[in-house]
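Translate sequence into structure tokens.
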Amino acid sequence: MQTLLTSKSFGFKVEEPLVLECGETLRDLRIQYTTWGDLNADKSNVVWIFHALTANSDPSEWWENFFPEGSPINPAKDFIVCANVLGSCYGSTEPKGFNFPLITLRDIVEVHKRLKDHLGIEKISLGIGGSLGGQQLLEWAVKEPDLFEVIVPIATNAKHSAWGIAFNEAQRMALRADPINGLETARAIAMLSYRHYDTYEVTQTDQDGRKDDFSASSYQRYQGEKLSKRFSPYSYYFLSKAMDSHDVGRHFGGVEKALNRIQSRTITIGLDTDILFPIHEQEFLTQHISNSSVHVISSLYGHDGFLIETEQINDILKKELQ
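Result follows.
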């Protein structure tokens, strides 16, 4: 592992009211963000990392083998930024009940833009994110086509699928029935989309002839209990709705036209066992973004492989960027 510089965590207060895409207004917004390294003199060394649904602004806590030795992302030379999204419960403005207004990916990106301006950033050398993080990245790259030099969307799409929305709605049904205990059920449902048939076969199959208390059952309960101890059911509810809202083409005449706006060099990465964001969604991105490539990595872990297969992701980045 390469030596990490000390990260710095900050709270940013957004002074101007934010008019949401739904028409409602949020005031006195706060955003938590984390940085590594320093902005260089010509402000050309910015790397912006986008986190997924239940993560926070510190990727070293949720991205396995964060900044491995030899990675093109290096806190010794880069100014790395990761912002906790609007609606999350890790220091940013969050819902306290079901009466919070609808927020979309476009709203989340607008808050990122205000943080960027606050930090004096004019250009971002590299943007990278998976799942909901990749959706944010694409939304921003469409909105500001000249902002990013390189983008790396991982295990993500241009428009959230009916399949993904259905999974999210099943989880929200559990939350509406019981906001507290329902979060455990919601997470158990989500795990079925985050992992793969083979993941459970290899890691949770019992060979002892038992009739009850199966490993797969206890695994589902464990995952639900673990999330319920650290995350807000209301953040989960509204961020899953934000994910459902993802459609880069909504304001640009359709998805294809929106993707055609992107000027960044695009390195798209997918996972061969991802049932939530299947490979054809990443191939679609490459078909409609100029100067783009797609790479498929192999993983036992389905969609969650974007958090686990750091070595393979880093190998792709080294090949493409060095």
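Note: The mean pLDDT is 96.
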